[in-house]
Amino acid sequence: MEKLINEFSVGLFFWQTLLFLVLLFLLKKYAWKPILNAVNEREKSIEDALNKAEEAKKEMAELKSANEDLLKEARVERDEILKEARTLKDKIIAEAKTKANEDAERIVASARESIQHEKMAAVTELKNQVAVLSIEIAEKILKEELSSEAKQSSMISSVVNEIQLN
Amino acid sequence: MQGKKIFKLLLFLLLITPSLTIASEEVAKEENSVKSEIKQDIMHHLQDAYDFHLFTDKTTNTHYGFPLPIILWDNGLHVFMSSKFHHGEAVAESKGNYYKIYHNKIYKTDAEGTLSMDENHHVTNAKPLDFSITKSVFSVMLISLLIFLLFRGFAKSYKKSHIPNAVGKFMEPLVLFVRDEIAIPNIGEKHYKKYMSYLLTVFFFIWFINLTGLTPLGINVTGNIAVTFCLALITFLITQFTSKKDYWKHIFWMPGVPVPMKFVLAPIELLGVFIKPFALMIRLYANISAGHIVLMSLVGLLFVFQNWFARGAFLGLTLFLSIIELLVAFLQAYIFTMLTALYFGGAVAEHDDHH
């Protein structure tokens, strides 16, 4: 301890204190402040950049999922449209078919009807002609039959005979 | 550019291990006095000096080095170069006063340089107030300048880009180490900022000074008690003057213990306030002094042994210890800064718990 006290140099202590304080002051002003500020700034900027990257990543993911949603929607819509088109097509074909059938039936029916008409008309005409012919024939026959007196009287007698007077 | 190269060269020179020049210093010694000369050299090295002594050629008795200014206050300012003392052999005259160096201290004497001693062989001559630029002061100036230039350049390089220059690339992790591993864990996020300048300065100052102590220049600054006292004193003063109410409360009226214990704890805690910086001072001083003694003794042993096998072994050991000392240089700077931060942390800590 005595050796230490003996060794202690006031001059050295004085200079050391002075120089150290000057160094402390100078370094504080010209080195530590700018260095720590720069380091802090850089750390902050790195943190910001990382945060931004994270955000961008999130945004990208969102965008991607949105895109996927959109794609899915579009696909569903397309499917729906296709389905609709298909049903529409089926419906149109079916409608056309039924209409065609109906038309055909109607045409056939009307044809049948007109055939019936024609037939009836023909039959009526035939009947009329037959009637006329038969009257003419009957006239001719009657004329033939009733040309003689004898024949007329026999005729009358047969009719009278036929009439039963009861 | 030129300046940069010289700077790098200087740095390189400063980082070479001490073995080489000390070895040349020891060449041509007479065998019988080798041991005592080694002892003298070590003691001489550990002490501060009034000139910057590099080495001595003992065959011709010429000293290589340069003188430093002597500044004395003795009823007026006396400034002269230490070359006037002729390495302690002559009496220096300044403005009618005579001074002599005896055991590395300047005493006021008469024209013949007579020193009067008491019975314990202590010099009784008057000592002038000595503010000389000694070897240690000169080294501190040089190293402070070096630190300032290095770190100012480092700080400036941030203006150009986010990435610092070459010095900065090496130093920035250390600055961040001081901030993230020393300041923040010990002081806390809230208060650490106001202590950063001191912690960084003290860390790099001690580290650089310790490192230059390992160069062949033979500087031993942190092995001076005055230097470590100064650093410990600043730590002590900052601790006391930035402390919060809780700090004093924990010293004088420890919460959470029975009242009689409070009376016991108060003097212990108060003593602790002074012991902490005292330990800081002694730790740094003792570690660096011991390191220098061990290294120089090992180098000395190379000359004591005349056998090449032993010399080879000691050369290896010296190299190994030099590397260990490089680690110690950093470690002591780290420990000093770390404990300083711990004391600052204690001064500003806010206790909401009762322990």
Q: What does this entry look like structurally?
A:
The complex is a heterodimer of chains A (166) and B (355). Chain A is mainly α. Chain A has a domain of 115 residues. The longest helix of chain A is centred in the middle third of the chain and has 136 residues. Chain B has 355 residues and is mostly helical. Chain B folds into 2 domains: 64 residues, no CATH class; 212 residues, no CATH class. Chain B is built from 10 helices and 8 strands. Chain B has a 3-stranded antiparallel sheet, with no helix packed on it. A 3-stranded antiparallel sheet of chain B has the order 5-6-7, with no helix packed on it. In chain B, β3 and β4 form a beta hairpin. Chain B is globular. Chain B starts with a helix and ends in a 7-residue tail after the last helix. About 4% of the residues of chain B have low confidence. At the A-B interface, α2 of A face β8, α4, α5, α6 and α7 of B.
Low-pLDDT regions of chain A:
none
What topology, given as strand order, has the largest sheet of chain B?
Answer: 4-3-8
Helix content of chain B: 55-70%
| Total domain units of chain B | 2
Class inferred from helices and paired strands of chain A: mainly alpha
Largest interface: A-B, 32 and 44 residues
Give the rounded overall mean pLDDT of chain B: 83
Q: How would you name the oligomeric state of the polypeptide chains in this document?
A: heterodimer
Helix/sheet category of chain B: mainly alpha
Uncertain parts of chain B: 16-30
